[in-house]
């Protein structure tokens, strides 16, 4: 059985390449993350003034 010796430059290249792949994968996952859901609650009703309440006979 023979073992191949790997030069140091090849090890460093593989290390940098694996870091770049991991970084790219992290960015891809972050880009696909869902945005927060939109707020679907309606805005609060505008308060009516006393004159409008007296004219309509309704209490708002």
Q: Top keywords for this entry?
A:
2 helices; rod-shaped; 60 residues; 0% strand; mainly alpha
In short:
By secondary structure, the protein is mostly helical. About 50% of the residues lie in helices and about 0% in strands.
Polypeptide structure, described:
This protein is mainly α and 60 residues long. The protein has a domain at 9-33. It is built from 2 helices and no strands. It has helices spanning 8-31, 50-56. The longest helix is centred in the N-terminal third of the chain and has 24 residues, at 8-31.
Report the sheet with the most strands, covering strand number, pairing sense and barrel closure: none
Helix/strand structural class: mainly alpha
What is the radius of gyration computed over CA atoms, rounded to a whole number of angstroms? 33 Å
Helix content: 40-55%
Q: Secondary-structure element sequence?
A: HH
Count of extended strands: 0
Which parts are unreliable, with pLDDT below 50 for 5 consecutive residues or more? none
Q: Shape from CA axes?
A: rod-shaped
Mean pLDDT, all residues: 82
Q: How much of the sequence is in beta strands?
A: under 5%
Distance between the termini: 89 Å
Please tally the helical runs, counting DSSP H or I stretches of 4 or more residues: 2
Oligomer: single chain
């Amino acid at each position: 059985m023979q073992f191949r010796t790997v030069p140091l430059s090849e090890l460093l290249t593989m290390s940098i390449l694996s870091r770049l792949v991991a970084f790219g994968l992290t960015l891809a996952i972050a880009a696909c993350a869902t945005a927060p859901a939109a707020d679907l609650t309606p805005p609060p009703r505008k308060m009516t003034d006393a004159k409008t309440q007296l004219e309509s006979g309704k209490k708002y």
